[in-house]
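Journal club prep — side note

Before the paper discussion, L.F. wants everyone to see what a predicted structure for a comparable chain looks like in token form. Sequence:
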Amino acid sequence: MSPHEVKEQKLTATFKALIKLLKSKRFEDISITELTRAAGVSRTYYYRNFKTLDDVISAYEMLRIIQYLRQLPNNPAKLTFETMMTHYFQLVADDADDQLTLIAAGKEQVIIKAFNTSYHYLQKDNVEQIDEYDYDFLSGAVVNVSIHWLKNGMVESAELMGKKIRQFL
């Protein structure tokens, strides 16, 4: 296994342990020792990579978003806003239990920040400058709609949600 794969594996184990602990404890009551023990990683690993438990969430969300980006079409003509949103909602659906656990723990802002970062990355080659407030608006809007969708049981398909977001904006 490559060092990169080991790093991803440890991050995933740490995040999954955090989610498991959040199902029975308040976020503020989770200790680093308890988390690292549950994840099977060392405290040294934790402190080398994270300053806070929010950093664990952010790092894992970014890993998931990178995986999401890899699933997008390589052809710029096929990479429409609707396609990006459809893929995002599918990612949310795939991680529904984890997302709902984070929402119940009040960690919506961490999810919004990860979405914002990934959308910045996707727009880096866009010749039209997008105002920072536009990024904040879009990130908050899409994540809040995804939260509502999750809480309502994801009745609509990811494709329909992608279309709805395109229509909203």
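L.F.'s comment for the group: DSSP finds nine helices and no strands in the chain. Keep this in mind when we get to the figures.
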